[in-house]
Write a structure and sequence with these properties.
11 strands; two-stranded antiparallel sheet; 19 helices; alpha+beta; binds adenosine monophosphate; binds magnesium ion
């Protein structure tokens, strides 16, 4: 078959510049490609033609059967700390980078497969993916994007017409994922662990050119790169925390250099506020619990610092080793301040505040404490502050078992709001609504949509949920069912699984 032409305009810098850091590889052929999902708005953003992609030819491309013109599929090498233990060789075991396109904003974006068959990095795995988990990537990724949180996004999901063997037989699928890049902390760890200075240097140069081009040529560029990643991750994790997102598997191979959220495996959104919340079936010790995420991010960034250190030292000569460690430690320590500042910035917006006062962090924390002790739904608890600001406190109070404690807090909050002059109650309410979503990807709704698609081939619940997730701040009556928390009994035994 002729390679499909004119679908993408690839420009493959990874393949071109990083020879030796990947293996060229082809996607596996599958039995009967069928397009289950095409992200039309994203296709347009990428300068692609959605009509040309929504064809049998497009389905063949997104299932891996037809490699489009200009693509140079490759499996990337990376390592990673998984649940604290180091695996020196992971790599794309079921993923392939097809290439890069430059989008309409001039941003370079990776186009990559997940579930496209075995590669030299597959170890024991089958290289495949199932429909449910790939559609989960769509829902959670699009939900995060609509919430304004940096994330990789799904361009398409193609069914393969084949079954994958898990605990049961499941319909197979291939996800096409778009990312600012697929560079991970683990990519650096792979070459650092092998003392391969030449490749490590090329990789760092590539990361700087791609994500922080203003640092190119700077004498302290490797430490500066570390600083940029620290900053992006501090802001990202603060955003996660302010929407109650639990990634579930924050291994260093799942942490990007770009600052995008990646790999929606055993992730979940918190319902009743609980810092210890953890849903992942494989996270038995709660390492990646909601409240641990900032600490884990810092731990992962320390692993990036270790991987970059040989470059810093080499550039500074032998005598520089001690100083390099001290300076890298300083950069790592900056995480805490950046994170706290980003968190508080987000919390002020959630409280409807436009100014800064000393007690704002205490005000936010005391509200969280109330949510925690009274097991209030995190999303609705914040959202109903908007109604309270507009004059209706009843909807907020109904969420609390002991509204008296809440009243003590709302008196403080109202006093703090009143200190900002010239804000009408309506514009305060609007401000709060724009910072506190009404709709998040609630676990039971996601599960329901995936089940219908996977078990019955019924995409309607998925489509409806996706439409709601794309308008998270709008209180439209037709989306009301998606704003409701799951019954507590459902949440209590909710678990998410990865690797499927
Ligand atoms: P993940 O948990 O999806 O981030 O994957 C961690 C590592 O396991 C990566 O190197 C993946 O490529 C690999 N992996 C996960 N599932 C499979 C699979 N079914 N076949 C081959 N490799 C896999
Ligand atoms: Mg991963």
């Amino acid at each position: 078959m002729q390679p499909p032409q004119n679908l993408f305009r690839f420009d493959n810098s990874y393949a071109r510049d990083l020879d030796g850091l990947y293996m060229a590889w082809k996607p596996a052929e599958v039995r009967s490609p069928r397009l289950l999902f095409l992200n039309r708005p994203l296709a347009v953003e990428l300068g692609l033609d959605p009509e040309a992609l929504a064809t049998p030819e497009g389905a063949a491309v997104f299932a891996g059967n037809a490699v489009p013109e200009g693509a140079l599929p490759l499996a990337q090498a990376y390592a990673g700390h998984q649940f604290g233990g180091f695996s020196p060789q992971l790599g794309d075991g079921r993923a392939l980078l097809l290439g890069e396109v430059v989008d309409r904003q001039g941003q370079r974006r990776d186009i990559a497969f997940k579930g496209s068959g075995r590669t030299p990095f597959s170890r024991g795995g089958d290289g495949r993916a199932a429909v449910g988990p790939m559609l989960r990537e769509v829902l959670v990724g699009e939900g995060m994007h609509a919430l304004g949180i940096p994330t990789t996004r799904a361009l398409a999901v193609a069914g393969t017409g084949e079954e994958v063997v898990r605990e049961q037989l499941l319909p197979g699928a291939v996800l096409t994922r778009v990312a600012a890049s697929h560079l991970r902390v683990g990519t650096f760890q792979f070459f650092a662990a092998r003392d391969d200075m030449e490749k490590l240097r090329r990789l760092a140069g590539y990361a700087i050119a791609r994500h922080d081009p203003d640092l190119a040529g700077a004498p302290d560029r490797y430490l500066a790169l570390l600083g940029r990643v620290v900053r992006r991750q501090a802001v990202l994790i603060a955003q996660w925390m302010n929407v109650g997102f639990i990634h579930g598997v924050m291994n260093t191979d799942n942490m990007t250099i770009s600052g995008e959220t990646i790999d929606y495996g055993p992730c979940a959104f918190m319902e009743a506020y609980d810092p210890k919340a953890v849903f992942s079936s494989i996270d038995r010790n709660g390492r990646y619990a909601y409240g641990n995420q900032p600490l884990i991010a810092q731990w992962n960034l320390a692993r990036l610092a270790e991987a970059l250190l040989p470059l810093v030292v080499a550039d500074g000569g032998d005598a520089a080793a001690e100083e390099a460690v001290a300076r890298a430690t300083e950069v790592l320590k900056s995480f805490e301040g950046l994170y706290q500042a980003a968190l508080l910035r987000g919390q002020r917006a959630k409280l409807g505040l436009d100014s800064e006062a000393d007690d704002d962090a205490a005000l936010a924390n005391d509200f969280l404490r109330l949510l925690e002790t009274q097991q209030v739904d995190f999303t609705l608890g914040w959202r109903r502050l908007a109604d309270a600001a507009a004059g209706d406190e009843a909807a907020l109070q109904r969420l609390f078992a002991d509204p008296d404690r809440l009243r003590e807090w709302t008196v403080r909050w109202r006093r703090r709001c009143a200190a900002e002059s010239g804000v009408t109650s309506q514009s305060r309410a609007d401000r709060i609504r724009s910072a506190n979503p009404w709709i998040i990807p609630r676990n039971h709704r996601v599960e329901e949509a995936l089940q219908a698609a996977s078990e019955r081939g019924d995409m309607a619940p998925f489509e409806q949920l996706l439409a709601a997730l794309r308008r998270p701040f709008d209180e439209t009556p037709e989306h009301a069912a998606y704003a409701e928390p799951a019954p507590a009994a459902v949440t209590a035994c909710y678990q998410t699984f990865c690797g499927t």
